[in-house]
């Protein structure tokens, strides 16, 4: 509360807050880059990097989707200002995740890439989710928001099916432990369920 | 066409152990005191080489003595370079200690592997619970450098130390009803955090199995060491199976029970996902895992910008020795 009041009265604090969030969201990239640089990723650095980037793409998507319910429930209006940034970071990490997979795991071998996308269902599903997120990234600017008017909101609801595809992607990767998938699933159910509840009661 | 290769004759079958032990005593006497200390190290298997600070696992005293007398089996070893030691001890699938590759090396360091005994039973003439030390005593340990191909499509070359499985089985005298061998891993949720997980799809204890002719094959091996030392706990100490023509999940770790049985054992991964993990689990580039291809593998350690992608070989490259075991088997059905 003190912080939000301070931010309201001192605009430069708001700028500072924005930069802090912006830089903090880059830390996962910096940390994995550093570990790769000092060869601290073990026998299979490729897999470590790909998993790490994918995990953070998921986290940012979940954070993006959590902003609406949290803002409403906690009355934290300022969260709204970070929704676009969080969404764009999700897209950023998702693109790096795919790029790292193609580079470090399959070494841009086209035969392997082709079979990966056609025969490995979890890759197909993950790539579909990314495909849904790309138009959202492109139309995230104020200009597009103005141009698309009501349709902008409709378009950006694609984030929900994208999140569901991401969840399927994660479940399909499971070999033995459901722990992570259960956590992600419960959170997503809550975030989407809350929206449904808002729609029903409004 | 597959040509059956005659079984390799082990030195132990030609020269009784007591004789070559005598020969060693004779040599030592000949070389005298100064050379004696040196000969101890010269005979030992190569120890791991690494820079920096890494844990090593010398093992209990009785094992150290046997490791010192070990010899490399060059005939059954690959010429490929073994993985650097630090990768072999930190990249493990041992779900009893966690599902991430680094979990076992983190969570297994306090795992008690000595004393250890193995219960051998079922269709055998000499059932019983044997201390591991007594089980190994009659044998000279041998080192084999083998390819480990994981079902997840990565592979590593590792020097294991142990004894042929057949030697041990013969000693307990399987009878004519013994058609399969069933192996069971320790069940001890107090020591093994993975066995406490409520989100696991696996039933504990871990059970694996072989057909009796597979188990009697000279390539089937029981490892008690690697890189010239004892097995680290994260690698399945103190006793694990090594069947290099099969996917790594068949290489059951920390074995407490070996049973010879009439029926095909109900193995852990097969029970959890029968369409993904078969009983045989022979390495086969022609039969994909339902969720990914088995045609290629990434040989670890792999460098980032030149992924070490190699074509997977049928039977992991051991087809010449083992393909005849499956002459009458449809390998797409019995994957």
- Span of the ends, CA to CA of chain B: 21 Å
How many runs of DSSP E, i.e. beta strands of chain B? Answer: 13
Q: Kindly report the oligomeric state of this protein.
A: heterodimer
Q: Radius of gyration of chain B, rounded?
A: 20 Å
Secondary structure: helix percent of chain A: over 70%
Low-confidence region ranges of chain A = none
The helix count of chain B comes to 10
Taken as a percent bin, the fraction of beta residues of chain B is: 15-25%
Can you describe this structure in just a few lines?
The complex is a heterodimer of chains A (202) and B (335). Chain A is built from eleven helices and no strands. With 202 residues, chain A is an all-alpha fold.
Describe this structure in words.
The complex is a heterodimer of chains A (202) and B (335). Chain A has 202 residues and is mostly helical. Chain A has one domain (44-201). Helices cover 82% and strands 0% of the residues of chain A. Chain A has helices spanning 2-9, 11-24, 27-37, 45-74, 83-105, 110-119, 121-138, 142-148, 150-156, 159-173, 179-201. In chain A, helix 1 (2-9) packs across helix 2 and helix 5 packs across helix 7 (121-138). Chain A is globular. By secondary structure, chain B is an alpha+beta fold. Chain B has two domains: 1-43, no CATH class; 45-326, Sulfite Oxidase, Chain A, domain 2 (Alpha-Beta Complex). Chain B has helices at residues 11-14, 17-43, 61-68, 85-88, 103-107, 132-136, 165-171, 212-215, 268-272, 319-322, and strands at 71-72, 117-122, 128-131, 142-149, 154-164, 180-185, 207-211, 221-226, 229-230, 240-242, 255-261, 296-299, 309-311. In chain B, strands 1, 4, 5, 8, 9, 10, 12 and 13 form an eight-stranded mixed sheet that branches. In chain B, strands 3-2-11-6-7 form a five-stranded mixed sheet. In chain B, a hairpin with a 4-residue loop joins strand 4 (142-149) and strand 5. The longest helix of chain B is centred in the N-terminal third of the chain and has 27 residues, at 17-43. Mean pLDDT of chain B is 89; it is low at 15-21 and 23-42. At the A-B interface, helix 4, helix 5 and helix 6 of A face loops of B.
């Amino acid at each position: 509360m003190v912080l939000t009041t301070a931010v309201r009265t001192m605009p430069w604090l708001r700028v500072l807050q924005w930069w802090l969030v912006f830089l903090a969201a880059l830390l996962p990239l910096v940390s994995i880059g550093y570990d790769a640089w000092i060869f601290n990723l073990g026998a299979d650095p490729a897999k470590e990097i790909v998993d790490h980037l994918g995990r953070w793409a998921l986290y940012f998507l979940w954070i993006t989707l959590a902003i609406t319910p949290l803002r409403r429930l906690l009355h934290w209006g300022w969260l709204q200002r970070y929704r676009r940034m969080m969404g764009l970071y999700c897209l950023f990490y998702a693109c790096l995740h795919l790029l790292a997979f193609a580079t470090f795991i399959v070494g841009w071998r086209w035969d392997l890439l082709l079979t990966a996308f056609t025969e490995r269902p979890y890759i197909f599903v993950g790539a579909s989710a990314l495909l849904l997120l790309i138009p959202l990234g492109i139309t995230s600017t104020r200009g597009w928001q103005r141009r698309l008017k009501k349709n902008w909101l409709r378009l950006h609801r694609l984030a929900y099916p994208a999140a569901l595809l991401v969840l399927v992607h994660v479940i399909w990767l499971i070999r033995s432990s459901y722990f992570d998938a259960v956590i992600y699933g419960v959170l997503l159910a809550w975030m989407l369920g809350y929206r449904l509840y808002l729609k029903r009661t409004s | 066409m597959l040509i059956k290769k005659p079984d390799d004759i082990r030195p132990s079958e030609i020269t009784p152990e007591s004789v070559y032990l005598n020969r060693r005593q004779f040599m030592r006497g000949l070389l005298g005191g100064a050379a004696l200390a040196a000969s101890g190290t010269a005979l030992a298997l190569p120890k791991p080489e690494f820079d920096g600070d890494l844990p090593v696992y010398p093992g209990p005293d009785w094992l150290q003595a046997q490791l010192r007398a070990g010899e490399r089996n060059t005939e059954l070893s690959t010429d490929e370079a073994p993985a650097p030691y630090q990768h072999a001890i930190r990249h493990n699938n041992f779900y009893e200690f966690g599902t991430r590759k680094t979990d076992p090396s983190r969570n297994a360091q306090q795992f008690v592997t000595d004393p250890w005994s193995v219960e051998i039973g079922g269709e055998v003439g000499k059932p019983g619970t044997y201390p591991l030390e007594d089980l190994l005593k009659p044998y000279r340990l041998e080192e084999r450098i083998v390819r480990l191909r994981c079902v997840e499509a990565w592979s590593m070359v590792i020097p294991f130390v142990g004894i042929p499985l057949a030697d041990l089985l013969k000693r307990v005298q399987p009878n004519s009803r013994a058609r399969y061998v069933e192996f069971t891993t320790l069940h001890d949720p107090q020591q093994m955090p993975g066995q406490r997980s409520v989100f696991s799809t696996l039933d504990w204890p871990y059970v694996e199995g072989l057909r009796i002719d597979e188990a009697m094959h000279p390539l089937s091996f029981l490892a008690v060491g690697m890189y010239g030392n004892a097995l680290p706990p994260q690698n399945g100490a103190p006793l694990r199976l090594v069947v290099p023509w099969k996917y790594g999940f068949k290489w059951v770790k920390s074995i407490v029970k070996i049973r010879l049985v009439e029926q095909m054992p109900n193995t852990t991964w097969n029970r959890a996902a029968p369409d993904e993990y078969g009983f045989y689990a022979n390495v086969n580039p022609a039969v994909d895992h339902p969720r990914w291809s088995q045609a290629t593998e990434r040989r670890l350690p792999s460098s980032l910008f030149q992924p070490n992608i190699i074509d997977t070989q049928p039977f992991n490259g051991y087809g010449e020795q083992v393909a005849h075991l499956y002459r009458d088997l449809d390998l797409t059905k019995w994957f």
